[in-house]
## 1
Amino acid sequence: MNVIDPNTSQPKWTRKPQARPDEVLEAALDVFAVNGFAATRMDDIAKAAGLSKAAIYLYFPSKDDVFKALVEQRIGVLQGHFDAAAKDQKRDPIAGLRHVARMWATSFQDLRVAALPRIILAEALRFPDLAEFYHRTVIERTQGALVELIQAGIDAGLFRQVEPLLAARALVSPLVFEILRRQAFPAHNIGQPMEVLVEAVFDLFLNGIAAVPLQPFVGVKP
Amino acid sequence: MNVIDPNTSQPKWTRKPQARPDEVLEAALDVFAVNGFAATRMDDIAKAAGLSKAAIYLYFPSKDDVFKALVEQRIGVLQGHFDAAAKDQKRDPIAGLRHVARMWATSFQDLRVAALPRIILAEALRFPDLAEFYHRTVIERTQGALVELIQAGIDAGLFRQVEPLLAARALVSPLVFEILRRQAFPAHNIGQPMEVLVEAVFDLFLNGIAAVPLQPFVGVKP
Amino acid sequence: MNVIDPNTSQPKWTRKPQARPDEVLEAALDVFAVNGFAATRMDDIAKAAGLSKAAIYLYFPSKDDVFKALVEQRIGVLQGHFDAAAKDQKRDPIAGLRHVARMWATSFQDLRVAALPRIILAEALRFPDLAEFYHRTVIERTQGALVELIQAGIDAGLFRQVEPLLAARALVSPLVFEILRRQAFPAHNIGQPMEVLVEAVFDLFLNGIAAVPLQPFVGVKP
Amino acid sequence: MNVIDPNTSQPKWTRKPQARPDEVLEAALDVFAVNGFAATRMDDIAKAAGLSKAAIYLYFPSKDDVFKALVEQRIGVLQGHFDAAAKDQKRDPIAGLRHVARMWATSFQDLRVAALPRIILAEALRFPDLAEFYHRTVIERTQGALVELIQAGIDAGLFRQVEPLLAARALVSPLVFEILRRQAFPAHNIGQPMEVLVEAVFDLFLNGIAAVPLQPFVGVKP
DNA sequence: GATGAATGAGAGTTCATTCAT
DNA sequence: AATGAATGAACTCTCATTCAT
């Protein structure tokens, strides 16, 4: 009543400025990452964002929508990480695969990035469309890139005649699982950096699919 | 599905008082598997068990305790399998590992059993003691058994000098991840049975750690 | 079905044996005295009585009725204590009053007796008819007896022209209040026996109503 | 009675946000006074305050806390009276005692205030800390003030060598007991105002402890 | 007579959401 | 834009009471 121009009596808002919503999502990620969806209260998000609870509703119509917007936004970020990674590497599939694997380690150093897969897996039942979106934009793309590389390796005679999708998953899952494990069982985290794990996993994987024996594997003493 | 057969609509039960707590857990598993922990109401469990809400409290002091009892019960069953499997197999580590891997496939055929890891993962932050319990009784023991087998293989010169814990996880994680994947992204489940996946994963793993080249891997066409 | 004679098919009971109900009331007094009415569960009473909860309902139709029966029974006991006490003492009103006062001390040594006034005061609003009954059978009678004694004292020229009812209350209330105080604030109970208190209160009272100065009062050092 | 005027049925209020907690306590006192603690539902308080049940929780974290806050608030008021009253009266202990006694009459004219001791008594066992608080802030301080006055009277040769604490209780208990009596046995309330009772009790008390005979007591005809 | 088993009807408490300002 | 205040609709848990055996 004091801010609105009395000439234009538009009681409902439609404009949503850009900075604020992102700040809210930023804050929401922090609390969702720690508490999960159900246990996070709108008050928590508001407090983390330095806003009042009601203010959140200026930008997002519901708690579900905050969550969805958050995941969609972060998926975008995640996707950016991997998007170009696998391109133009078919000349040297092994180097390409190694590059992708190492990128994992780097990306998931950021806990706010690492939280995303766990959140999605945990809440997939409640937000099947989100899970679907994640699958389509992140999983399938990453898998696709890996599959292409693996197929290229097979075609080049570097790899055995494995099923590429399966092999791709065999490479990715120990890495994803490790970041899930670290979040779910923080008490059992040895201080080992992800990079070391990645190298070991990749080496094991490479030996698994190599057409000919490779260099001897050097295990990691945790 | 097994507690209340939707085909036969007989709302009244022949009571088996001694088995009541187990029936409640049975029902609880059904509901938790579909809704997760937080979204499951005591009324849901009660209804699934053919009881009143208050009756649940005759057997379990709280919702948390229902969940914990459920995990303990299911885990106890699984654990017996693995414990027995891992012992007495050190003579033939490869056969031992293969046996354990195959047992996974069998155990997690039951979708309600498969739901447990997902629920644990989703609720680990809210129930750290439950997660701790799960880690201690399931993860550590399974890992321990695998590590022993792998170490035996290394000692016998069958496997390369890999880090056993890491190798164990590299074997297990594709399998665990697959059951998570199937639940989180049901739309992307190809009908492939777990057994086939297990064989492929195990073969890839074996080639990865084998000291000498093995028989050529035959990939699975999904 | 196994105990009841199949010839006489009387599904409802009317007979209530004598011993059991009293045992129940005995137990009920214990728990009501400690927890008050609302906080006492039927289970508590049952456990204290060594019976099942359902068995209580064989003897009393409701929790309220247990309470009422208990109070009525104990009022009878209490009443018996004081009933004849004040009779035939009009020859020597001072001795009569002293006798009554000392009886208080003796009676309320028993905590199960002492609990009654507190219970009744505490629950008077919920059980107005019980309170009424207590007033009629205990308070009025006791007061009546005291009033008669005091009136006799006045008539004999021993006491001043006080209002007898008021004086009676002035004598009784410090005593009753003390037993309430001891129950409500057990942490502040100095070990002083009731008898000592009674003597002091009585002495103070006597000096208060005496027509002529009496012997010097000897205070009690607690 | 004072919060929701039954005569003017205006369901909506002019909101005074700052005063809300006090309004809630005001309403709570009304309801607690009638129903006691256990039998009062949060809904009752809310309705009496013209609020929703959930709104109460904006100001008080639990029902217990509403009760405690209520007692503290009311006691604070009372206590101020007594504290001031007892000071600066040692020159004339008799006038001081009379003043304190008369303040009782005034304070407990308000039936809602009079309800507090009864509630405390009834709930003392369930809320030992509340009882403790009440004892410390009300009973001990009132007693302390009286004890000092009585001791001053003894020192001045006005009173006999009575035990001051005991004498203080002998003065107070008929008054406290009377307000309990009036609530527990409303059917037996003669219309006599508290002031008259106070004068009579005080006169009796004074004669009881006086070192020399005082003016003849004039009893009250109820 | 007695009980184990069960329940309906609440109770206190929480929280996403709304609205007047 | 933003918020303090408020609430309705749950939810977990409790307990007096019932009933088949």
## 2
Amino acid sequence: MDPILDGLNHAQREAVTSSGSILQVLAPPGSGKTKTLTARVAYLLSHHGYQPQDVICCTFTIKASREMRERLANLIGEKLESRLILGTFHSICRRYLVKYGYLIGLRKGFGIADSDDTRAIIKRTIKRLNSSIEVKAAQGRISRHKAHGLSPDAVSQRAKAEELELVDIYRDYQSALAASNLLDYDDLLLRCSDLLRDHPQCVSNVQAVLVDEFQDTNIIQYELMNLFASKSRRITIVGDPDQSIYGFRSAEIKNLKRMQGRYSNTTVVLLEDNYRSAGSILNAAQEVIEQDEARPAKALQATHTFGTLPVLRRLPTPNAEAQWMVLEIKRCAAMTGGLLRMSDFAVLLRSASLSTQIETAFGRAGIPYKMVGGRKFFDRTEVKIILNYMRVANHTGHSDALLNIVNVPPRRIGDETIRQLTSGAEQAKLPLWDFIKDVIQGRRSTEKKLQKAAEQGLCNLVKLIEASRQKLQECEDASAPRVLIEFITERLSFQEYLIRTYPLDEDTRWANVKELMHQATEVAAFEEEEVDKEMDLPEIEGVEQQQTHAGEEALTRFLANVALATEITKEEDNKEGTPTEKVTISTIHAAKGLEWPVVFVPAVYNGSIPHSRAEVIEEERRLLYVAMTRAQALLYLSVPIRQPRLGEGEDGATTLTPFLPPKLTKTRFRQTGPSLHEKVVYAIADILRRPRPSLDDMYKGLEFLPSTLDDRWTPEGEEDRSKFESTSASHDVSDEPNPKRRRSDMNQGPKTTTYMSSTGYTMNDSTGFTLPPTATTGFTSARDHIAAYPQLTSESAAESASSTHADATRAIEPKPSSGAGRKDGLTQASISNFFGGPGTQKREPVVPNRPQPPPRRYELPTSQNQRLPAKTNVPPTLSSHRVQPRPLIPTGPTLEPANTSGYTWLATPSGPPASRPRITVTQERGVGNASTNGTAGAEVKPEASRGFQSATTFHTTTMSMVQQGPRRTLGIRRSMNGWQDRMKRESGGG
DNA sequence: TTGGTATTGATTTTT
DNA sequence: TCAATACCAA
């Protein structure tokens, strides 16, 4: 058997081995899309004998291209992998333009205009033309025209009057780019397609073209694909119309049809088995996407068990929402006995700006996280300054970069001076830089005489840039970027400048500059090995490739990578005790193609999703679909019922997204987090294909939980006043009125114990939630609890109904006897399992009067506390607020009849219905403790203890995160052109 | 004319 | 939280 085909199902195999030269693979979420595509690449190399440098593989995002490289390296080896022409459309185009751009009159050493440059240029011309068009709107419309391949002239021909205003801006923008020798993102594609259309010999070597996420291609990218394949006409595309979420970037789902029309011999293969998600999640997601009636029906078959229903949680405010996520993450982590680690959780957001509250809540609670998407490393002001110096040094014609740094650090060059200079340069038809040089050397003068101070400042600037250029000329190797950064920071006394300007966080800002240096160093090290030659395009007879000064070339490439990558991977500082395990917070867009065991999608209200400014609401629905289908085992959607800030309703009330109509939420969702008893946990383990945790391990975490249920808020999304009376007085905990006061509350307790602080829960209790100062209302009986959640019973019934057929597919065990007493019986069984089932040495429900350290939530009277191990001593403030052990009575949602794979419970002795097992969690802890010394679950132990102990280190991480402020964590992306290959070599090889 | 301080305003998604 | 604007003192 061909190892390439190992582990592929029938449809995947068919796709991989298809002899059709034009192949479309339609691959819904979790169907092994990337696996199939990489296998196809490997198959083409090994069975068709193509050389890797003759295969082009286009992805859409950098992350996707990195993943593809990694997978291919495993499949075909690094040697071959590194020679593939693989990358984002933009980066591949850049490579072609660098080598062959001269054929279409592109000037050497062109730079890439990032969105900041674009915005600045457009802003300037709008001002000059006195246009009333908004900058952002103009930017978007110009980009759209370009994505359709329309030049300013082309637009003006078919334009209406109002469009003509834009055409002027468009023209002006284009000439500004040309003047600075810049290409914007659209130009990269556009000019490359010009190149290949006029000079197809540049790609005459290409044997096969593969495109990932084809539904996200725009017209130009589609044309590029065809041009790449103009010789061989062998194309494989993988895509899913349901996951098209880049329409705002002119992506056209129509390209699928267009391609079929263009190539009559198109073969279409459908993948429909989902290997990622629980059946319950798929059902819910499928129902969301099927609301789109224009969409062709497409099957999506679950291969996993039904699992537990997804959650749609209502909460009072965005802040409560964030705190709830903290609670649920901790609850999941603790109650699954080390099965789930921090890196198994993801929070997916419609907008990156939603992250702030979540980040602060996580920071306070000691949840380590990393933010993906949102603000980019290379966009930080301090980094940007250095980069702009480098850009000017690289190419003095880059007027926008020059304008950005002309008075940074301050050189007494103010607005007026700049106005004189720019208008003078324009009149003289000179680049700004040349004009400035002429002025200070006395060859020219401005309309109005410049101030002495300003002139002196300009003089210093020119000297610095000239010196930098000199330095660059002297440096004829790949170290140029690093050399230049060092030189510039030194000459600017940049660190002192940062201290002066940003006294609050000058250290992190300086650290960012250091990080930039580090990146440059890495590039240099990589290129010195000359491995990068393999990244070059293959030589083609008869077409000359353009050569450049090595140092300049290295700098240009560095800057291009920066513009195209905009994020970098920070190497994990694996210092002792630093957890590398982090919760991912990401935009939904940036999460495409990825998966996590547990996914949270907060803010599912109208205006957020669909976004209030969204143009196509179908796309927003697909966005929700994409977000939901990232989840493997647990999916949480949530919505704050009030949005105090920008809410459109009078009191800031929100409305649930129309994508989740009542008939859907009633049948496919539960209202609160699932009870995480044994069977649920086992189902999670099975879906993740991880070993089931032992019951011991599952007990271990419980004592640190304030509750084993998701019950701090009512299912309707109010704070539960019966338990948290004092907090309801000020229900916008959200705005965190006076943290100091609360902190002092906490500090009434003994300052104590590494243990306390190490749980990471002290922090949370003290700041995240408002604890009632007195214990009067702390106790809630389970009966009260049930009374408060009447709907749960029916909900669980719905779940069992909807899950029956899914059961059948996977039932390993005989079904529980169904019938009248079924619900109770099941519940009892699962609960008693949970607290003392056959997984442990104890078969009986635990002896009630055996003294055991209780979990905090169900605190025993203080007399019992004396028997706690010294280190687990609980401060009086915390122990006092709940005085009685809370009996746990099975409630509706603990029913999980879907998970018949948990076979242990059938053997469990369940009490007679009359005497329900009123087991306190105290006992449950006892079981856990007792069996810690036993043998049960020994093999799972390392995992479990890691998950648990890390709480200690979470805390420390948090502290550093809090000090640094939010979003200091560097993103996980890495620019391409081999940076990641180097990483791989280092980590993988060593 | 500059540069500091205060106020206000604003925040889709990515290459 | 950050950035752009507005105003005032030098």
